[in-house]
Amino acid sequence: MKLLWILALKELRDGLRNRWIAAAIILLGTLALALSLLGAAPTGSVRVSDLDITVISLASLSVYLIPLIALMLSFDALVGEFERGTMMLLLTYPVSRWQVIMGKFLGHVLILFIAIFAGYGGAFLIMIIFAGGGTEGWQAYGMMMFSSLILGAVFIALGYLVSVLVKERATAAGTAIGLWLVFVVLYDLLLFGALLLDKEQIIGQQLFSALMLISPTDSYRIFNLSMFEGVSQAAGIAGIASEAGMSGTLLMSVMLLWVMVPLIATLLFFQRREL
């Protein structure tokens, strides 16, 4: 366990040296503050707090930003070390390959943790002074931060899988961008395009829900927009997730599965890769 933390702290120091943490904190914090100041709670019979509106806006934009930040952190985590020759040097020490992967993973998740909780959390503390709302609003915001960390961990793991499979850093960068486009942009476009073209209604509600569920980005979005009453009412999707059988536990389990599967695959490929 000590070796894992040594490797994790090395990645954290590298993140500090490369200004990754500062840049991510500034980006996420500025985004959260801007959305909270620009957003306004709707009027009418449905009463929700400004914080609920901020959760909707942040969840909708974080689904684009968090995966991109995570992939930029992780795409060259392994192939970059191979190109520089530092991986061979690292493995001359009494450290196993699985410890290298898990140490790097912990370090990159820690970088993302600091960025999310300093950026979004700092904005949250500032919003407390100005925004009203009940406890449910704070819970939704807190779960949005936590689920953003899990979403980031998903794409860190996917970035590692890319990094262990390719031979060049440039190839890893291109593949990472392709992954981001597929998961964040193209998947939903293709899914809704197929739904629009489905004149014979082959895609029923259950199949559509399943196709939404298997995407980590859609699971993240549905989790944050439907699990809390104020947020779901403001987003206009109250009751939709429960009707489709998508509980919070199920949605979070899907995201955790997306962390574990690529990470295990990375470990297996890394064990077989020659130095």
From TrEMBL:
Keyword Membrane: yes
Gene Ontology CC: plasma membrane
Ranges that cross the membrane: 20-41, 53-79, 105-131, 143-166, 178-197, 250-270
One annotated GO molecular function: ABC-type transporter activity
Keywords from the UniProt entry: Membrane, Transmembrane, Transmembrane helix
Coiled coil ranges: none
Name assigned to this protein: Nitrous oxide reductase maturation transmembrane protein NosY
Species: hydrothermal vent metagenome
